[in-house]
Structures are given as structure tokens and as C-alpha cells.
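To: structure desk
From: M.T.
Subject: fold request, one chain
Message: Could you run this one when you get a chance? Sequence is below, nothing fancy, just the single chain.
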Amino acid sequence: MFLLKKIYGFLIDTAQTVLLAATVFLITYIFLLRPFQVSGQSMYPTFYDKEYVLTDLITIKFYPPQRGDVVVFKSPTDPDKDFIKRIIGVPSDTVALKDGNVYVNEKELDEGSYVSQELKTYGGSFLGDNETIKVSEGEYFVSGDNRSHSSDSREFGTIKQKDIIGKSFFVYWPPNKIRGIKNPFDN
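Reply: Done. C-alpha cells follow.
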């Protein structure tokens, strides 16, 4: 009888621990942080194909994203897919492409800290070469760091803030590539 009570107590303690761990995991996954896998080369050299990033889901609800933030959002062309891109233009900015360079509010964007100096940015079907657009309130202009291999706002236009899932802040896989994700425009 004593042995049965010990086994029963152990099973109850184990079940409580598993239930608590599952609850903490679900709350964290649904409301706070979510992992995303980078797919493709559109954010190279910032991210490599198949890397995993942690994305903060809560901060974006209270603080609007800033130029330079890396965000995950629902694809405008396929809502079952998530994209990861860098914010280039924020609400009320003007974004222009001239001579292979990006201009925000009529100033050339200094991207040397996260893209190759040889990188040239050419237009797409939404924003062509030598064209300018104004980013509307509640919208953002996003771009991959590897522009020649990126489907981004040059192709599909600005994205709505409500479609942004969160801000990526940490690469955790593979283990030899663990690092934080910094905004190159933060001082």
C-alpha cells in the first residue's frame, strides 16, 4: 500500500510538472516569442538559409518598428508564408531608387554595415528605377539585404503594420552561428 501511494504521488508530481511546463511553453509561444526559419538567400549576408531566429511578438504591439529593424510578416501574395525582411521606410518616408542606390527622404541610405558595398538596388514592378513613393501611415517599406535575390516592397509594395508578426532579435541555430540581431541605424 505504501509503495502504491509513493508511485501515485510521483505520477501526480510528474503530471503537474509537465502541465506547468506545457502551459509556460504555450504562453511564451503564443504571446511572447516564436522561432522562425530563414528560407532562401534574400537576407544574406545577415542570415543564411536554414538558420533559425527568435522573434519578439509583444514589443511590436507597443512600439512601432523602426528603420533597420528585421521583421517577420505575412507574405502579401501568400498568407500561409512568412517573410523576413529589413524595414527601409517607415510611415511618411519617401523611398526612391536612383542609380542602383536607395534614398530615404532624399538622402542616400547608408547600408554599408549590413550589405555589400558593391550591392546595387534596382527597381521592381511596384517601385521602379528613378521612381519615388511615399510610405503611408500604418505601412512599411521592406527589403531583403541580398536585393538581387529578394522579393520585397520593390515587387509587392509596402506592408501593413497589422501584417507584421514580430521583430527578430536573435539567431539561435545552428549553434556555431548564435548571435544577436542589431539594428544598424541604432546609435
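Reply (cont.): The chain has one domain: 2-178. Let me know if you need anything else for the meeting.
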